[in-house]
């Protein structure tokens, strides 16, 4: 294909800043590689609530379905935190994932040698870490019914339902089996089967799928509390991790600190082959630094690289972005979140970091 249409969902908080940086990097890559890119902006989250009183408007869904791929920044902010649930930014994000059928969320936590000092952990613990978290994205306690806050026996009771169907576990297990097969073949399924029935089913089904369909995959199981500890104690024991929606949400943020910052972690949300995926950083809208040109755009820029690879079949151009990011880090440029005292690096703003990556791509192809 010579040209691709991308739905661009800037969202809230630092969303517009990191989106601008990412779009300029993508445009640089497209020019260098000689393909076309068109961006269709669409509203999601708080911005959509403010404009049309719907966190995932029909027009946005239509734009997503019509696109070759979807690039999302981040949503959320204090302003909407006490809205009713259907008027929350997060509800829009969840609706998008669910309605597009994006049941698998790939969150790579790969420690770059340039950023070892940015991690709060010791060099020998993080050096060489390369983990892929395969997070189920459209089930679990996020979507289970019934849910709500009701008055029962004279007091308020809040409840959600942690629930997985066998078919949902099977399909995410297959994604994880394929991912692990292309990596080292080691897969750790994380659950809470010692306590939760839903986790026992998860463990049983995952075990069966691996035995029947991925005999070469070396499957292990770990309880989520232990996994949270092991990730910090000795992360190199992990290669691919597969887990449910909420455990994966938590463990992937934890894994970002191995890399050095949440501002470095990209992700790909994918469904059945053929439809567009959503490529989004793991982080949120960072309201504490929004509008200050301080955000790290690299998580979104690396998500764009995942988009080129997974949705557009542009592996070479994806690698150009990844190489350029590493070269910029090699050059000693850092945003605030990955800068450490006395590292001798130059502090850049969000826009300037995006520009550096673009310049690097241009100089690499010359
Ligand atoms: P957050 O990820 O927005 O921020 C956590 C911390 O990490 C903050 O200190 C923030 O400044 C920092 N951080 C995050 N991204 C960064 C970046 N690119 N560069 C530099 N620093 C960065 O999480 P939160 O504060 O718990 O949530 C804020 C809002 O974001 C909430 O409304 C939440 O629901 C939403 N959220 C959205 C997404 C998403 O859009 N996918 C993900 C997580 C949280
Ligand atoms: C993420 C976020 C979302 C999630 C929220 C904002 C709904 O934390 O993308 O990791 O929990 O999935
Ligand atoms: Mn999260």
TrEMBL record:
Entry EC no(s): 1.1.1.85
Function comment: Catalyzes the oxidation of 3-carboxy-2-hydroxy-4-methylpentanoate (3-isopropylmalate) to 3-carboxy-4-methyl-2-oxopentanoate. The product decarboxylates to 4-methyl-2 oxopentanoate.
PANTHER family xref list: 3-ISOPROPYLMALATE DEHYDROGENASE (PTHR42979)
Cited Pfam families: Iso_dh
HAMAP family: LeuB_type1
All copies of domain Isopropylmalate dehydrogenase-like, residue ranges: 5-357
Catalytic function, reaction form: (2R,3S)-3-isopropylmalate + NAD(+) = 4-methyl-2-oxopentanoate + CO2 + NADH
Name of protein: 3-isopropylmalate dehydrogenase
Co-factor: note: Binds 1 Mg(2+) or Mn(2+) ion per subunit.
Cofactor: Mg(2+); Mn(2+)
UniProt keyword RNA-binding, yes or no: no
Source organism of this protein record: Tetraparma gracilis
Metabolic or biological pathway: Amino-acid biosynthesis; L-leucine biosynthesis; L-leucine from 3-methyl-2-oxobutanoate: step 3/4
Alphabetized UniProt keyword annotations: Amino-acid biosynthesis, Branched-chain amino acid biosynthesis, Leucine biosynthesis, Magnesium, Metal-binding, NAD, Oxidoreductase, Signal
Enzyme class: oxidoreductase
UniProt subunit comment: Homodimer.
Upper classification of the organism: Eukaryota, Sar, Stramenopiles, Ochrophyta, Bolidophyceae
Family that this chain belongs to: Belongs to the isocitrate and isopropylmalate dehydrogenases family.
PROSITE patterns per the UniProt record, alphabetical: IDH_IMDH
């Amino acid at each position: 294909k010579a040209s691709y249409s991308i739905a661009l969902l800037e969202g809230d908080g630092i969303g517009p800043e990191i989106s601008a940086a990412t779009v300029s990097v993508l445009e640089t890559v497209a020019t260098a590689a000689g393909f076309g890119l068109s961006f269709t902006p669409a509203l999601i989250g708080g911005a959509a609530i403010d404009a049309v009183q719907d966190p995932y408007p029909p027009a946005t869904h239509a734009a997503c379905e019509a696109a070759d791929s979807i690039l999302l920044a981040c949503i959320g902010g204090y302003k909407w935190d006490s809205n009713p649930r259907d008027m929350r930014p997060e509800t829009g994000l969840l609706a998008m994932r669910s309605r597009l059928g994006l049941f698998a969320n790939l969150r790579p936590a790969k420690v770059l040698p340039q950023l070892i000092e940015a991690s709060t952990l010791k060099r020998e613990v993080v050096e060489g870490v390369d983990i892929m978290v395969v997070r189920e994205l459209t089930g679990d306690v996020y979507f289970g019914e019934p849910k709500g806050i009701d008055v029962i026996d004279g007091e308020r009771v809040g409840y959600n339902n942690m629930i997985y169907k066998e078919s949902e576990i099977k399909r995410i297990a297959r994604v994880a089996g394929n991912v692990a097969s292309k990596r080292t073949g080691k897969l750790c399924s994380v659950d809470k089967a010692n306590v939760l029935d839903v986790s026992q089913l998860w463990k049983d089904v995952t075990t069966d799928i691996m035995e029947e369909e991925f005999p070469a995959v070396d499957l292990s199981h770990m309880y989520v509390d232990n996994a949270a500890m092991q990730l910090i104690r000795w992360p190199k024991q992990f290669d691919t991790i597969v887990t449910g929606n909420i455990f994966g949400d938590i463990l992937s943020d934890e894994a970002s600190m191995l890399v050095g910052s949440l501002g470095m972690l990209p992700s790909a949300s994918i469904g059945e082959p053929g439809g567009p995926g959503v490529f989004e950083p793991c982080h949120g809208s960072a309201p504490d630094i929004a509008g200050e040109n301080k955000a790290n755009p690299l998580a979104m820029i690396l998500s764009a690289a995942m988009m080129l690879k997974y949705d557009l079949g542009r592996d070479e151009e994806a690698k150009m972005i990844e190489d350029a990011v590493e070269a910029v880090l090699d050059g000693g440029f850092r945003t605030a979140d990955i800068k450490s005292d006395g590292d001798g690096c130059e502090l850049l703003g969000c826009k300037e970091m995006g520009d550096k990556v673009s310049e690097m791509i241009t100089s690499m192809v010359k």
